[in-house]
Amino acid sequence: MVEHYPEAIRLHREFLRKFPTNALGHYHLGFAEGMTGDTSAELVEYQRAATLGLSRWDLFLNIGIALLEKSDLGAATEA
Question: How far apart are the C-alpha atoms of 22 and 4, rounded to whole Å?
Answer without folding.
Answer: 22
